[in-house]
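Chapter summary example.
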Amino acid sequence: MEKEIRAAAREAVRQAVWDAVRSILVGMTSEEETHVPGERPDSMAAVVNQAPPVVGVCVDSTPAEFLPPPDCQNPPPQPREQTPAAAPAGLYIYGVAAGEEEIELGVAGVAGCRVYTLVAAGLRAVVHDCSTEPYRPDSDEQAKRWLFEHQDVLDQAKERLGTILPMGFNTIIHSAARQPREVLKEWLSRESGRLKSMLERLRDKEEFAVKILVSDEVLKKTALQEDSRLQELQRELEGKPEGARYLYRERLEKAVKDSLEDVVEVYFRRVYRVLRPLCVDIQVEKTKQAPPGRRMIANLSCLVEKSRVPVLGEALAEIKQRDGFDIDFTGPWPPYSFVSELVAPS
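The structure predicted for these 346 residues follows.
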């Protein structure tokens, strides 16, 4: 069951990543401020939208115009022994996992960079060497490619290293006074207790994004069934002559529209009560604009034990069978929504 869920969601996941972050990346080209990957969520949103608040020694503080991509345009990583001896100006960090051994990850990172780990205090940071400049795309296609490359590194790191604490896209560490590797290792050592505790909390758990939509007709029908005030207006409408019905119909439609928020809240609470016991934790995200004729009643980021994923899938399948309901279920994502206290070296 779990394999079927993953297979069915794969294409939706990749599209969701792009949809969630495209506007953020475009905005990066027109803002003059320090970049702090933020807002979760859209769940799983995800590489940028789901990223935890991150502060680097110096992270993305370049002007608005597009910049050429920093370093690493040549793919296939070379063995580490063949890299130049000079220390990099910056380090692009993907995330942190447990481990004692420094390794080559064997996957090309953002812009084809060689990805490896730096170790300190029993922790491994997944990084690549880069310049001090942030990555800014010169086209939508390039932005999409970089985001998927960032996500692919996290996926590969999870496969090889186990649980990983993800950093957001464009988290770059550099310092005018010290080598970035020195800064990163010092941070790993200083924060080792907290980071290991976070890793332990997330062990054998995965994040999924759940969006639940309901048709407007079902919501209006529920409002009429459960609101005595609306029922009274409907009775008045039925008792009026044809000429006067127009005004009463307008009054009824306005009253129904005004009551929909209450109906949405009722539906949200019912769904939440079903899903909450199946998850280790749930983050409630802002609802998004739904397609015409439907309304999003819940946008949830769910942290789930791997063994419980099929149970969650079955519960969502039951909800989807209800009249007018639709489910958008994607994942697994890196647990961006549940590492909000993760802060890079500062």
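To summarize the output: The CA atoms of residues 83 and 147 lie 25 Å apart.
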